[in-house]
Amino acid sequence: MNSFKHMHDWRENIDRFFGESFWGEFDSILKPNIPQVNIFRKDYEILCVINIPGIRQIKQIDCSVDGYNLHIKGEIYIKSSGYELVQEEIIQGSFNRTIELPYKCRDDKVSARYEHGLVYIHLYKNVHESNKSTSIKIKEGEK
Q1: What is the mean pLDDT of the chain?
Q2: How far is the C-alpha of 11 from the C-alpha of 63, rounded, in Å?
Q3: Considering all CA atoms of the chain, what is the largest pairwise distance in Å, rounded to the nearest integer?
Q4: Under a CB-based contact definition with an 8 Å cutoff, are residues 133 and 75 in contact?
């Protein structure tokens, strides 16, 4: 028996017993955050490194910063036409994620680049009050 079919049947039985809203409380535990993010900081700077494989054009990623939040959305798509998916560990599909930053960041001093499947976003601590949102342009390649 196909293990995916077995898992689907198991979930349907749980839904019938506990109700469909049962899984909603566990979604944040069961679903990994995509894209994956590492955040580094020093003094008045933050470096966010975001794992986004399979990007063909930088235009596929939309990124902005407003205060304490970095917003990133796009789609991870791995081309495999003519093949049947047997095992999936690289999560694919649309993503829309808001990343909470350790402190409020400036919207006028931001740089970003995409290199080898990673987006590097360099932010600076905001020592002045500003609540506007700024879109981040991502460049290709090295610094």
Answers
A1: 82
A2: 35
A3: 61
A4: no
